[in-house]
Amino acid sequence: MFLNLDQWDGFPAERTRILSAFRDVENLVTITGDLHSFGAGYLRPDFDNPLQRPVGVSLLGGSVTSSNLTEMATFGQGGLLVPPETDLTWALRGSNPHLEYFNSAAHGYVVMDVTPAGITATMKAVRSIRSAATPELLTLRTFRVGEGTTRLETVDRGTRALGNAGR
Asked: What's the pLDDT tens digit per position in 52-67?
């Protein structure tokens, strides 16, 4: 499923060439945020081949207030803060097996802890962006990528009380 042809999906030959150049690079982790959604997955020169060895890890940070995919699809109405991973999330994962996690309903940011031992990314969300009150911060997920690996390790599956399916 293509999300946006003005991003990776629209440039498959260039994406393959760039990611192929990183085959021998250790510790490749990309951190992006253009989709205004949270995500974590693997970088492969050929995204259509789920058996291909990843060349790196991709972490996607959400938006604090900009509309995310859920809001765009519901004309600004949004949805549950952390919906069970159904509908859009499963559709995306079904056609994008390199994704380990995707959440396009929450708003927030990612806290990155970078040390010689690796990177820990904690995805934080706010309960609401429609209030001027100090927001309550919730952990959606925490991932770790150890030094010298291209493996995502889930450290914390987040707050289940918000409907998070814990996958």
From this structure: 999 999 999 988 877 7
